[in-house]
Specification:
Layout: H1 12-34, H2 60-66, E1 85-88, H3 92-105, H4 109-113, E2 118-119, E3 122-123, H5 129-134, H6 156-174, E4 191-194, E5 199-202, H7 211-230, H8 238-251, H9 265-279, H10 282-285, H11 288-297, H12 300-311, H13 317-334
Antiparallel strand pairs: 1-5, 2-3, 4-5
Length: 339
């Protein structure tokens, strides 16, 4: 289930209040009609692929087109949910600069935002299982997702030629129907241009446990980018970012990195958070303590894994999962971060 606004928010507080109201509205309908509740995070921890299916409703023709080439009945297509943040730009110069700055931080955002440690009732080999599956779900046409970390570009023309046209040609050769060719939203990198709304959409952050935590991530990213775009800093090679991304989705904040800010992702994120604090608005500063706690004590995925393993010492592993995720259900309903 996806919740999204009809227009951009005027402030973080507006963001939180509006989306929490939406959560309560949907939750009320689900409880009254189906006796069901809502769960956040990047993946349902117990859902098996045999228990779900490909989207059969409006726009189903898009998934039917994908199915001509890709196997949609696997993780990476099913049972994933990200927090997608759209950041606006006014012109080409601003858009290119924003895109390249986002590319520089995409590898490290999962260290703070991972929330999917358990898949089909088992603790996975990656702190961010959602992104692990996401990175390989379209290997039949590798250029669609690339290395997940966006390549640097110097113009919209370069982006359309080297990214959109390239994967469209490859998809056509593989037999993908025309419905999906030359579409900007088909790009599955961790951040993509949405020319239709003059924004860049960031996709590497897992859905969190509550709206307040999603807002905190947005404040962190916005303030951090404000700092990066306003000052001079060393531009890191794309290959370095790709290597660090793979380490981060596997080991989270403990991942070893090649970044000059530190040897671990925690050290890198601490420096990035310092930049965010220095460039945050007063309203954004209200939310940054949530990110501070994640960096210091572990992202949501690491916290979930730790709590489940501790609970499993006294009960079955499945019961431990149910117990911890029941508390996460409460976090979403009450809009309280889970620490």
């Amino acid at each position: 289930m996806e919740l999204r606004p009809n227009k951009p928010f005027s402030s973080p507080i507006d963001f939180e209040e509006t989306m929490q109201q939406a959560v309560q509205t949907v939750l009320g309908l689900m409880k009254s009609r189906y006796g069901a509740r809502l769960l956040g995070t990047g993946m349902h921890p117990l859902l098996k692929l045999a228990e779900t299916g490909v989207w059969p409703h409006r726009h189903r023709q898009i998934y039917e087109a994908y199915s001509k080439v890709f196997d949609l009945r696997r993780h990476g297509w099913l049972n994933i949910q990200s927090f997608q943040l759209n950041l606006p730009f006014r012109n080409e110069q601003e858009g290119v600069a924003l895109h390249n700055a986002i590319a520089e931080i995409c590898a490290y955002l999962p260290a703070v935002a991972a929330s999917s440690p358990i898949c089909e009732g088992r603790i996975g080999a990656h702190v961010d299982d959602r992104l692990n599956f996401y990175a390989v779900n379209q290997l039949e046409v590798p250029s669609v997702a690339g290395e997940i970390i966006p390549e640097y570009v110097s113009s919209f023309t370069e982006y359309r030629t080297n990214v959109i046209s390239r994967y469209s040609i490859d998809m056509e050769k593989a037999g993908v129907p025309a419905l999906l060719l030359h579409k900007e939203w088909v790009n599955s990198r961790g951040a993509i241009f949405r020319f239709d709304r003059r924004a860049i959409e960031i996709r590497v952050m897992d859905e969190q446990e509550c709206v307040k935590s999603d807002v905190a991530l947005s404040c962190f990213v916005r303030a951090l980018l404000r700092g990066l775009l306003s000052g001079n800093h060393e531009v890191l090679p794309h290959e370095l970012l790709v290597k660090d991304f793979k380490s981060v989705i596997k080991d989270g904040l403990s991942a070893e990195t090649l970044h000059p800010y530190g040897q671990t992702a925690r050290q890198v994120c601490s420096r990035l958070l310092r930049t965010a604090w220095e460039n945050a608005s007063e309203e954004e500063k209200l939310y940054l303590p949530t990110i501070q706690k994640r960096v210091e004590n572990g992202n949501l995925s690491e916290t979930i894994r730790r709590r489940v393993e501790k609970r499993a010492q006294r009960t079955s592993f499945r019961e431990a999962i149910v117990d911890v995720y029941s508390k996460l259900v409460g976090s979403l309903e009450n809009n309280k971060p889970y620490f």
